[in-house]
Amino acid sequence: MLVFEGLFAGYGGGDILKGVDLVIEEGSVTCVVGPNGAGKSTLMKVVSGLLHPRVGKLEFQGQSIAKATPRQILKAGIVQIMQARNLFTELTVRENVELGAFLIKDSSVVAKRLDEVCDMFPIVAQRAKDRAGALSGGQQRMVEFARALMMDPVLVALDEPSMGLEPRSAQIIYDSIATMNKNGRTVLLVEQNVRAGLSLASHGVVMEAGRVRLEGTGAEVLANPQMRALYLGGTIEEGQGVASSTGVGAGAPAFGNGS
Amino acid sequence: MLILQGIIDGILIGGLYALMGAGLTLVFGVMEIINFAQGILVILGAFLSYSLVRATHIDPFVTILITIPAMFLLGYGVYYLLIARLKRDRVIMSLLVMFAVAQVIEGVLDIAYGGTLVQIHASYVDTSLRFGSINIPLVYLYAFILSAVLMGCIYVILYKTKFGRALRATTQNPAAAQLVGIDVHRVSAATLGIGVGLAAAGGMLYGMTASFNPASSYDLISRLLVIVILGGFGSVGGAMAAAIIMVVIEDVVAVTWSPVWGQTMFYLVLVAVLLFRQQGIFGKQIARAQ
Ligand SMILES: Nc1ncnc2c1ncn2[C@@H]1O[C@H](COP(=O)(O)OP(=O)(O)OP(=O)(O)O)[C@@H](O)[C@H]1O
Ligand SMILES: [Mg+2]
User: Fold this and answer.
1) CATH number among 1.10.3470, 1.10.10, 3.40.50, 1.20.1630, domain B2-289
2) What are the pLDDT digits (tens) for B83-138?
3) Which pairing describes strands B128-131 and A211-216: parallel, antiparallel, or unpaired?
4) With a 6 A CB cut-off, is A32 part of the ligand 1 pocket?
5) Cα–Cα distance for residue pair A102/B165, rounded to 1 Å
6) N or C: which end of chain A has fewer CB within 10 A?
């Protein structure tokens, strides 16, 4: 559904993404993990059109979106929640969520969607008239999710949605992601909590230094001994000989926790 | 009574400065550009109205029906032709672009009108309302009313329209605005258009209340910057209050002490305010995304 091929992109001072090859299957939850600075957020910005690739192929449902604007990509059905600061903090919660439907002209559709997301995220109705900036971190994430669903997107790109949340809020977020997927949306997820992210995912991707280094089902990637080496600060190539004897199976603690 | 006169003049003229300052502050809010051309754009607006009045003998207030749309298009065009094309260091580069635009306009006005001081005339320019010893020039009153009406229009646009919501969203968080599908370029172009359009209206009023030539723009822009800084960058309400406070201080000092100190005093107030409240009197500390 979303295809990256030989994709290079950067911010004007050299490439950050250095030849990304990746296929996101329709209906999947693809979880991208990788150390800080690997280029995960940069990849997400390319998907949403905030950043254009320098070279390479980027296709969504068979159409190139390499040169598309964020607005065109949104219309095509991809919505993104950034790693931080997604909300208009001086606007009310309701205004924020309504802005999610900025491109929808038909006000009856907007009203219907608003009802739907209020059912899913009661905080939107409860705090409708409050300034979005007055909400807690977890509540703000809910508002962001609610806003993202206003366009009824086909693909949802989420950049570290659990970042900075206490475990209970994070769990609500993971549950919402599972629900979105069950409702037929494809999910592209970046997670720093490797274990939580990969257990949720049907497909796991490890990025390092602007490239995809490992791929497989979520469980396969989680169990891969090279993962540990990567998170201990090595690179995958260098780390091949230091596979840990304790293993890093599903029971192991999350590598990224607390970082 | 002198003080009361100063306060009344201050409020009336402050309204006009607020109008010109609103253009500056809206543009700053959306684009983070300090539009150094705003002073000369006001003067351009004044000359346009001046010429229209001389050529057609219509009332100066009618001329803004032509000059506001024309100058809106000028601002809109400048954005797409010059600013939208900047790929790097946009904030600093657009500052230079606006500076260049100011120089070009000043050059053109110098050629077209020379340096002589002119004023826009209407039959009621020298008429005043008198209440005892208080004197209210009719022009000041009209200028205040038009400024208030236009500020009301800006308020309605900002808070009651979809475009206004897009503008406020862009001001707060440009990246998130793009991600909800707001065409940030179009919002920016329209905002610069509105800012320049307000300069057209402000120019007509300025040209009726004072005599001007192209060089008047320097005094204007420094006052406008003071208003916008005092009011807090990006805050329209703040600009309004700051403008009134500024002119009241200046007028009260001028009538009770000396006109020279009137001007100096408000710069002193500016320095004092900035020493204690760097975000201006009314500004909030805004943490912007990106
Ligand atoms: N706006 C920007 N301008 C210039 N360089 C940037 C910009 N944003 C990110 N970078 C650089 O790109 C590289 C990759 O950053 P990116 O945000 O994609 O990493 P990440 O994998 O998301 O890391 P994290 O886990 O910390 O979120 C980093 O070296 C970063 O410094
Ligand atoms: Mg990131």
Assistant:
1) 1.10.3470
2) 998 877 888 898 899 999 999 999 999 999 999 999 999 988 888 999 888 889 99
3) unpaired
4) no
5) 10
6) C
